[in-house]
Specification:
The protein has a four-stranded antiparallel beta sheet. The chain has a four-stranded antiparallel beta sheet with strand order 8-9-10-11. Helix 2 crosses helix 4 and helix 7 packs antiparallel against helix 8. 44% of the residues lie in helices and 12% in strands. The chain contains 27 helices and eleven strands. The N terminus and C terminus are likely disordered. It is globular, with a radius of gyration of 29 Å. With 625 residues, it is α+β, with helices and mostly antiparallel strands.
């Protein structure tokens, strides 16, 4: 980033935002910019607001932007066009983000003229709206010569996201640096940003391996890898053990599709980094942490989004084979958890749980069903993300490739308790619509993926897709015998299940078989599972509706919601814990030992519960079975 020679205060109303950003950078004592970027100049126009008329639809806004800008962007004189944009944009009254989104999608008639105007706006524009339009045009029209200007403008508050979008196809590293600067709320990446800015590869390497492994620091693993040029570092240091281990952690983090398209699908060097990580895996020491990481990587390659990368024929299978051979080797066989007799009985809880996860997961990524003639191969894989995670998803594979991230990508497959235990995947005599995945934010916000499952002679057909992202998926026709066999295998397979989750499944099954247990206490079952923050605690959630159907003044039924928490006990088997829990429900009212969480304050008071602190006044605090 260059800095203009002058250091006198700049007049914000007449100075371009580009010059203003250079000035702000130049007067910073250490050259560091605030996390949210430099503030816009004083006197900059505020975000527009149009309270005088109803908010127009997206299509109406798009038509307004096109009518206002398209004639200007075809003007061969960029100076005249840019001046007209400055005058015309305020009258639109659109928020800046909306204006940029529509500008980026304009159907341009003269791209060369539009490019000239975009450059003039980015280099001489004086308002965020006009400069934002120029940057939005460069998302499609930008060329390498625009990179320095986009880097500078991206340091201004409110322009980082659009500048990142314009930089992405031109300079991934520059785009990534803008992103991690803006997202580094805890300043855990500040040393890395400083090292990258210095241009010293050794400093970058040292700062990169020092990045904490916690999720907050790795919030955008792809952007960290791009900003630090991890691929370039590995090319010159392929056997650096710390760098290799970090590569594995970043790849695994990129492969998680939590609420959005998995980052691994947009990381260009992903295949090369997998080759480095697996190819030099034997240089890393056999530790439980790395054993867990290698298994997690194998799961990603087997049934996660990473399987969808544009692999050369048999290359992915070769990497999986390499991991399988490594973990079956004598050195890794001695790692606690690699064998049933791990001998970790006196180890700390986190180590015992990691060992248990390794034992439960060790065969999952290396197993595959056999082909079924001319029909697609269909598999169900239930994946528990990691030893201390509560994330469990049902993965559907067709011919060895994961179906859900290819068709949806807004959230993982639904839980096995719903899809597998609930019989949702079974093909019955009548067509049935099944929800396979839901957006992380909820279906009401960003949708869900549905398919209709039906039996057609000796085939099971998946069609009638609803909620898929992209073009409509095709119909899939599976051999019915092989399909039924795979469903039955998945229903029998509980190897993925850790003790607390197993306890939850057994309690659920017991209450389903004996509905009178809860009916006796006027309770309904909402859910039994494991606590999201404490995955080794079983939680049963009940709802109480008083007899007679009492209602509040608004006509809503009066209800109370209770949670019963059952922390895991290492010396008690899940079968015993579940049996004890069911027996306690049979002999005593759960409202007397579960904890009141929420509901009607009027009803809570009538039953003697204190409110609104959520504690059960006369219910006691015993939460065991």
């Amino acid at each position: 980033m260059s800095v203009r020679d002058e250091r006198e205060p700049l007049a914000p109303r007449t100075t371009s935002l580009y010059d203003y950003a250079l000035f702000r950078h130049g007067i910073e004592p250490d050259g560091r910019m605030p996390r949210r970027g430099y503030p816009l100049p004083e006197g900059s126009p505020p975000e527009p607001d149009r309270p005088d008329r109803p908010r127009p639809s997206w299509e109406q806004e798009r038509a307004e932007v096109a009518a206002a800008l398209l004639p200007l962007l075809s003007d061969p004189d960029p100076v005249r066009a840019a001046e007209a944009v400055h005058r015309r944009v305020p009258a639109l009254g659109l928020r800046l983000r909306t204006l940029r989104a529509h500008t980026a999608q304009l159907d341009l008639t003269d791209e060369a003229a539009a490019r000239r105007t975009a450059r003039h706006l980015t280099r001489t524009g004086t308002t965020a709206a006009a400069v934002g339009i120029g940057i939005a045009l460069l998302i499609r029209l930008g060329e390498p010569e625009d990179v320095p200007y986009l880097q500078v403008l991206g340091t201004l508050s409110g322009l980082e996201s659009v500048a990142t979008a314009a930089l992405d196809p031109l300079d991934r590293q520059a785009a990534a640096l803008l992103v991690i600067r803006g997202r580094d709320r805890s300043e855990q990446l500040t040393p890395l940003v400083g090292a990258i800015t210095s241009g010293d590869p050794e400093a970058v390497r040292n700062a990169l391996v020092a990045v904490p492994g916690e999720p907050r620091a790795l919030l955008s693993a792809r952007r960290i890898a791009e900003a630090a040029d991890l691929h370039g570092l590995l090319r010159t240091r392929p056997v650096d053990p710390e760098l290799l281990a970090l590569t594995g952690r970043l790849l695994h983090r990129m492969s998680r599709d939590v609420g959005r398209r998995a980052e691994i699908l947009d990381y260009l060097p992903a295949r090369s980094l997998y080759a480095y990580f697996v190819g030099y895996a034997d240089r890393l020491p056999p530790t439980p942490e790395l054993h867990e990481l290698f298994l997690a990587t194998a799961l990603d390659l087997h049934s996660g989004p990473a399987a969808l990368l544009n692999w050369r024929p048999h290359r992915r299978e070769a990497l999986l084979g390499g991991l399988e051979r490594l973990l079956a080797g004598p050195a890794w066989a001695l790692v606690p958890g690699a064998t049933p007799s791990g001998g970790e009985g006196t180890a700390p809880a986190v180590e015992r749980r990691r060992a248990d996860w390794i034992r439960r997961t060790t065969r999952t990524p290396f197993a595959a069903t056999s082909a079924t003639g001319s029909h697609p191969r269909w598999e169900v894989a239930v994946v528990h993300d990691a030893a201390d995670s509560n994330s469990v998803e049902t993965r559907i594979l067709v011919d060895g490739l994961p179906l859900l991230p290819a068709l949806f990508g807004k959230g993982p497959g639904l839980s096995p308790e719903y899809l597998v235990d609930g019989g949702e995947l079974r093909a019955g005599p009548e067509p049935r619509e099944v929800r396979l995945a839901e957006a992380e934010c909820t279906e009401g916000c960003c949708g869900a993926l549905y398919v209709t499952i039906r039996r057609d002679g000796d085939e099971v057909v998946w069609d009638g897709w609803r909620g898929a992202v992209g073009p409509p998926p095709p119909a899939y026709r599976f051999d019915a015998a092989a399909y039924d066999a795979e469903v039955e295998r998945a229903e029998r397979d509980h190897s993925w299940c850790w003790p607390a989750r197993r306890t939850a499944r057994l309690i659920t099954a017991g209450l389903r078989e004996r509905p009178e247990l809860l009916r006796r206490w006027d309770l309904g079952l909402i859910w039994v599972g494991t606590d999201w923050r404490e995955p080794h605690t079983t939680v049963a959630r009940f709802v109480f509706s008083p007899p007679g159907g009492a209602e509040d003044p608004y006509g809503q039924p009066l209800r109370l919601y209770f949670d019963w928490r059952l922390p895991d006990e290492d010396d008690v088997l899940p079968q015993e814990r579940a049996a004890a829990a069911l027996e306690r429900i049979a002999r005593s009212d759960p409202k007397g030992f579960a904890r009141l969480q929420r509901g009607s304050s009027e009803l809570a008071a009538s039953l003697g519960y204190s409110w609104p602190d959520g504690t059960a006044g006369t219910a006691g605090t015993d939460q065991g079975a």
